[in-house]
Amino acid sequence: MEHKGNIKILDLHKVAFLCSQKCPAEVVLKSYDWAKEQREQGNCIVCGNHSQIEKDVFEILLKGKQPLILVLARSLKTNWESEIKNAINKKRLLVISPFEKEVKRITRETAKKRNQEMIKICDKIIVGYKTKNGQLEELLNERNYEQL
Length: 148
Fold this sequence. Notes:
It is a single chain. Helices cover 37% and strands 19% of the residues. The chain is globular and about 40 Å long. It has one domain (2-147): Rossmann fold, CATH 3.40.50.450. Helix 1 runs parallel beside helix 2 (52-62). It is built from five helices and seven strands.
């Protein structure tokens, strides 16, 4: 596993946010409200940033001051956006990749492995939405989680 940022964040209580790529509009709004609430409460959230909803939730959380973990569905990037660099420099962001340097493209398989990694490192799982018979539903089959 490769990482960049504050590895000590792994010692905190962590909540993973997972959501299927396609979800109803009301789930999008609930997810945004949830992210704002977590930001205000200072909770450590584990996110991906592949789907649009994941990107949006991560961006909402990144505007706060609380610790965050971003788990990638590819190898670590070499160039980061200024907001991410800033959060890493402030020791409030840990970026993790469970992949070798050669993995540059996100696929269904890498997204699944990323989700497995998120579940493995978190203490609690929040699901925005999961598609019936989808990959996320299969992954969460025997896990305890809360649905938004």
